[in-house]
Amino acid sequence: MSLCFCSILKPSFLNRELDFVSRCRLAPNPNCNKPFQFLNLQLHDRGFPHLKAVQADGVGVLYSDDTVSERAAPLDAETQHGAAVDGVVGTATEESHESPNRTRLKKIEGKKGNVDDGDEENRFNLRNGREVFEEKAYLVGVARKGDTDSSFDIEESLSELEQLADTAGLRVVGSTHQNLVAPNPRTYIGSGKVAEIKSAIHAFDVETVIFDDELSPGQLRNLEKAFGGDVRVCDRTALILDIFNQRAATREAALQVSLAQMEYQLPRLTKMWSHLERQAGGQVKGMGEKQIEVDKRILRDQIGALKKEIESVRKHRKQYRNRRFDIPVPVVSLVGYTNAGKSTLLNRLTGADVLAEDKLFATLDPTTRRVQMKNGKEFLLTDTVGFIQKLPTTLIAAFRATLEEISESSLLVHVVDISHPMAEQQIDAVDKVLEELDTSSIPKLIVWNKVDNAKDPEKIRSEAKKDPDIVCISALTGEGLDDFCNAVQERLKDMMVWVEALIPFDKGELLSTIHQVGMVETIEYVDNGALVRAHVPLRFARLLTPMRQSCVS
Ligand SMILES: Nc1nc2c(ncn2[C@@H]2O[C@H](COP(=O)(O)OP(=O)(O)OP(=O)(O)O)[C@@H](O)[C@H]2O)c(=O)[nH]1
Ligand SMILES: [Mg+2]
């Protein structure tokens, strides 16, 4: 089936019953006499002790007790071509234009436990307060020859996909990739690769195959068919949507994720009802087709209703924001790649308790807190949803309202995990999304976080010193936080205007606000009030206009 993640039409694939696994278990077939390729049991004895060999076409599996089982044969001759698992790293039979590529089988150890018959219970794990069954997933990526658009190489992108899969509660058992000039319009990857993956699916009881790029509805369908129907095929977008779905804690986030999911599903609403045709022995052809049209209409109506609801929540949020602007405290937004440490920084500076953990997309909703500096100055700090390379456009669109917080800030703080091997590429990916959000006019400060975790912290610190727009910190240990606050203060001062105002004695509260949000140079107490010279935010300067005039006069 093509749709893995629709919470409205069907539950998340992470909640599926064991039934799916038992359906995948192979029925013994001792009469099978096709050639086998023996697996390297040394590598796999922890993870797959029951497997001894896989038939050359990947269809049959020989178990350690010498029973042979066989799945349904491949659907078309094309996918049989070159199928093989070579035990340790799996070789791919390539089409002539495809360069060699690698298949990785993951050694499952430590907390993940064994994946054998007696280990099914260990595959239930507590995630976000609910027990989920860890499905076995296999990852597939494509490196495009001559692709200059993406700065992530395929290994790095797959490693990030693995982190996403782990966050979603899946157990990754292996991965593979292929170099292609252009993706295959039918199956995204070449036929040799399809066959190779099919072998891996059979050999390791893979339940979900995840592609690192967005697949077209047709590609999804064809791949599922080619893999034999019992395995779910999904892509990075669906995986990210599922994580968002699991993590949406507020009504607004839940609405936004639902909208993104529905928009993703609309063109993929196929095959859902093909069982009707099968049940009817194919005699009522078209029955499934009609049902799809009905489903699409229902989904479109739901999308319309959701958009209206989001709009009303958005208006509410805007009113709240406007009220917030009555107090002229500048707003500083934390932006950055997911897992960079934005929430940890907010928590550290404000004593907030926003969820911060070593998982991707821990934060979905913006949280704003007041930062009180040692010198008594204040600013508001907003934590926002993290970005990622290949961020689904449906998600950007759905979260645009929330991200408006960013475009209305006085200053953007781009938090970078400088200890991450892909820090530079992550910076590029964030800049790309910021461009899409039209934030070029807002001043930026770059924060190199997690310096404590860097291989050579000293080098990082001295590099940061060379650029006045970079501050080096550790949100975890507190290193550099004073420098960070001072740098924010400096940037905010640059955006303030110089005023001289005579504040009457009966408006004493204005004087304390100037101290709070501005930078006071001098105060002189005269007969009819306090003569203040200070830098204040533009919005606040407007408020002082009458007093500025009286000062001038
Ligand atoms: N060593 C080290 N770890 C840090 C530091 N800052 C954050 N972390 C860890 O990095 C992980 C991610 O931190 P978060 O604050 O959740 O990151 P985030 O940017 O809010 O992530 P999303 O909400 O997913 O976008 C957590 O395990 C933090 O403990 C730091 O300065 N040093
Ligand atoms: Mg966060």
TrEMBL record:
Family matches, as SUPFAM superfamilies: P-loop containing nucleoside triphosphate hydrolases
**What GO CC annotations are associated with the protein?**
cytoplasm
Has keyword Protease? no
Coiled-coil positions = 296-323
Keywords, sorted A to Z = Coiled coil, GTP-binding, Magnesium, Metal-binding, Nucleotide-binding
The record, for Gene3D superfamilies, names:
6.10.250.2860, GTPase HflX, N-terminal domain, P-loop containing nucleotide triphosphate hydrolases
Hflx-type G domain location is 330-496
**What InterPro entries does the record tag this protein with?**
G_HFLX_dom, GTP-bd, GTP-bd_M, GTPase_HflX, GTPase_HflX_N, GTPase_HflX_N_sf, HflX_C, P-loop_NTPase
One GO molecular function term?
Answer: metal ion binding
Report the HAMAP family cross-referenced here.
Answer: GTPase_HflX
What is the protein name for this chain? GTP-binding protein
- Organism, by scientific name, is Perilla frutescens var. hirtella (Perilla citriodora)
